[in-house]
């Protein structure tokens, strides 16, 4: 998918160099190469947008810009980008494509590598390839990863230059800006602890989003609507209010012919919603309804019967909802709501950017709704001004984009826990004896089934088969031994999935739509299947085994707030079977299994009891 220009060139930032460059006769030309190839790395990083779930975006370019730079050198010899969470790092792909041409070359990274904790695949690839210099666009914004890869590369003797720190030049400002833009969702998430949210609406020239009757089809042009589909595909979720469901009956699909499909979120305090709605069809895309605790229990049961997930809040407001989806690991959310909910979201400070499509139409009407409801402002001096506004003509429409909140300032270097601990050994990274893990970019993210660690497991004939991740293997096992030939087709499709996310999406979708293709004993064997896969993973990779052993004395909790079987749930109500299995494996490795394990019959009985409860 092409990079959307309005999403890539409109974020405010400031370059605050901390160290001036030493005089160098070829520095201006070298800076020109640096700017050119860093911008290319950022372009590469954006390539997976719309086809995988939003995740940190990494791109890598390897070019020959060393001593030959002053003589007009500057040839790209290798490129790569992160396709999805749990796939090969961009740096490894670029090194493999460049081969022997890496020796003495320069690697350009839009962002500092962020491997799974204790997994230095990207760093090792660069070091082992013989690269002599690395140029980094921005440091990693997540505190537990910030600066780690840079220090590791420098400790191996490589020259590492960070834009705005080691390189100061007007030439590199646009390059630095492109690096900030391509990972804007991660930057906002890290700074504000909520997903990056942008409000989208289409309005007439006189500021109306619908006629007085409520009709809104169509304000914007077909070209603008196609662009909105792309925006949806770049988001974890699309959010609307109850009024939009009642009035428009939307589908909120990306419609880009496959790849990532954002979840649909409905915010409704009273659950005064229609029983028949396109959003209740979850055969292709899940729907989540956020409501106030205790609202219309009968309708909640009805939604549950449709496999629509309902999440209750003590008081329903945009801030609490966004903090909840932050906990679910979401990076980017698109708001396509009406004026009332849009105003509330702005008041609660969770909207970071606005995309307004203005159509050359006038509809009038005193009661016709506007895109943003009451904000309590009575003077023009109180108006919220957008930052870094951009304009783009989309067919007959004008797209106006701007930021409500500026990009977080990354100039101050946040010390890592290791750096802080060296000064103050009373500092602890944990407030309790619990270690939470979820996304692969989180601390202990390598415990996730989505981590990029292939395993080899025996099939029904005892032959060892390679699987790209634990998630690939687990999802495929749902269809093993089923006589229907379509089950084998499902298994093969999962095995060839390009990422753990895609494997999970395929497996869950088939299980939901074609339950007859799932093996009959699945609920009884799935825990054993998961445990065997985990045991293989932590046996193959010594650094993972060491990391697991380092957690001795801590409770491990898979921090999924919505998976009540494998995860710990939102309020600790989940069964946390993934965390349990990891602790069981840890005990086995430590030789403590007699103290914590049960015999096989007891384990089987416990599984059956849990299944019956569910």
UniProtKB/TrEMBL annotation:
What are the residue boundaries of the CMP/dCMP-type deaminase domain, all occurrences included? 32-161
Signal peptide (residue range) = 1-20
Q: What is its EC number?
A: 1.1.1.193
What the entry lists under PROSITE patterns is as follows: CYT_DCMP_DEAMINASES_2
Q: In which pathway does it act?
A: Cofactor biosynthesis; riboflavin biosynthesis; 5-amino-6-(D-ribitylamino)uracil from GTP: step 3/4
Q: Name one Pfam family in it.
A: RibD_C
Biological process annotations from GO: carbohydrate derivative metabolic process; riboflavin biosynthetic process
Which GO molecular function annotations are given, in alphabetical order? Answer: 5-amino-6-(5-phosphoribosylamino)uracil reductase activity; diaminohydroxyphosphoribosylaminopyrimidine deaminase activity; hydrolase activity, hydrolyzing N-glycosyl compounds; NADP binding
> Per the record, what are the reactions this protein catalyses?
5-amino-6-(5-phospho-D-ribosylamino)uracil + H2O = 5,6-diaminouracil + D-ribose 5-phosphate; 2,5-diamino-6-hydroxy-4-(5-phosphoribosylamino)-pyrimidine + H2O = 2,5,6-triamino-4-hydroxypyrimidine + D-ribose 5-phosphate
Q: Which InterPro entries match?
A: CMP_dCMP_dom, Cytidine_deaminase-like, DHFR-like_dom_sf, Eubact_RibD, NADAR, RibD_C, RibDG_C, Riboflavin_Biosynth_HTPR
Key word Ribosomal protein present = no
What is this enzyme's class at the first EC digit? oxidoreductase
Q: Which domain of life is it from?
A: Eukaryota
Q: Which keywords are on file for this protein?
A: Glycosidase, Hydrolase, Multifunctional enzyme, NADP, Oxidoreductase, Signal
Per its record, how is this protein called by name?
Answer: 5-amino-6-(5-phosphoribosylamino)uracil reductase
Source organism = Oldenlandia corymbosa var. corymbosa
Lineage at the top is:
Eukaryota, Viridiplantae, Streptophyta, Embryophyta, Tracheophyta
């Amino acid at each position: 998918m092409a990079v959307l220009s309005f999403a890539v060139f409109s974020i405010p930032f400031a370059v605050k160099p901390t160290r001036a460059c030493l005089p160098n006769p070829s520095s201006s030309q070298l800076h020109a190469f640096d700017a050119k190839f860093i911008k290319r790395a950022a372009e590469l990083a954006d390539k997976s947008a719309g086809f995988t779930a939003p995740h940190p975006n990494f791109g890598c370019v390897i070019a020959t810009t060393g001593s030959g730079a002053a003589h007009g050198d500057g040839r790209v010899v290798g490129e790569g980008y992160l396709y999805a969470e749990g796939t090969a790092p961009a740096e490894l792909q670029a090194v493999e494509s460049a081969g022997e041409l890496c020796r003495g070359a320069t690697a350009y990274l839009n962002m500092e590598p962020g491997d799974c904790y204790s997994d230095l695949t990207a760093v090792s690839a660069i070091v082992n390839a013989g690269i002599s210099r690395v140029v980094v666009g921005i440091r990693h914004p997540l505190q537990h990863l910030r600066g780690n890869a840079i220090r590791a590369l420098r400790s191996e003797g490589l020259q590492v230059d960070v834009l705005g720190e080691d390189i100061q030049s007007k030439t590199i400002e646009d390059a630095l800006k492109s690096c900030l833009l391509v990972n804007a969702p991660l930057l906002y998430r890290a700074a504000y602890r909520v997903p990056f949210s942008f409000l989208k609406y289409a309005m007439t020239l006189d500021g109306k989003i619908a006629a007085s009757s409520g009709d809104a089809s169509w304000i914007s042009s077909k070209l603008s609507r196609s662009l909105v589909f792309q925006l949806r595909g770049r988001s974890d979720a699309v959010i609307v209010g109850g009024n939009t469901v009642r009035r428009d009956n939307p589908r909120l699909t990306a419609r880009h012919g496959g790849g990532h499909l954002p979840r649909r979120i409905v915010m409704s305090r009273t659950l005064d919603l229609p029983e028949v709605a396109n959003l209740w069809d979850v055969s292709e895309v899940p729907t989540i309804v956020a409501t106030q605790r205790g609202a219309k229990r009968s309708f909640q049961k009805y939604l549950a019967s449709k496999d629509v997930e309902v999440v209750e809040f003590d008081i329903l407001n945009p801030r609490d909802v966004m903090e909840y989806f932050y906990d679910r690991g979401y990076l980017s959310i698109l708001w396509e709501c009406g004026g009332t909910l849009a105003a509330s979201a702005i008041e609660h400070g969770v909207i970071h950017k606005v995309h307004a499509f203005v159509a050359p139409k006038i509809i009038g009407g005193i009661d016709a709704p506007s895109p943003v409801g009451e904000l309590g402002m009575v003077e023009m001096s109180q108006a919220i001004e957008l930052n870094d506004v951009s304009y783009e003509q989309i067919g007959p429409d004008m797209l106006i984009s701007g930021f409500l909140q500026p990009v977080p300032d990354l100039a101050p270097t946040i010390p890592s826990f290791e750096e802080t601990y060296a000064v103050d050994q009373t500092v602890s990274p944990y407030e309790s004896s619990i270690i939470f893990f979820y996304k692969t970019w989180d601390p202990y993210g390598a415990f996730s089934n989505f981590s990029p660690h292939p395993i080899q497991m025996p099939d029904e004939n005892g032959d060892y088969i390679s699987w790209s991740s634990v998630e690939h293997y687990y999802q495929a096992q749902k269809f093993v031994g089923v006589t229907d030939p379509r089950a084998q087709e499902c298994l093969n499709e999962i095995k060839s999935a390009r990422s753990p996310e895609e494997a999970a999406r395929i497996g869950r979708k088939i299980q939901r739509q074609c339950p007859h293709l799932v093996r009959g004993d699945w609920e009884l064997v799935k825990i054993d299947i998961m445990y065997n896969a985990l045991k293989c993973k932590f046996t193959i990779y010594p650094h993972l085994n060491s990391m697991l052993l380092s957690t001795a004395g801590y409770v491990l909790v898979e921090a999924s707030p919505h998976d009540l079987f494998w995860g710990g749930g939102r309020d600790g109500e989940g069964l946390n079977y993934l965390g349990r299995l990891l602790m069981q494996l840890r005990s086995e490795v430590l030789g403590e299994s007699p103290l914590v394990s049960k015999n096989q019959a007891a384990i089987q009985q416990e599984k059956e009891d849990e299944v019956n409860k569910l």
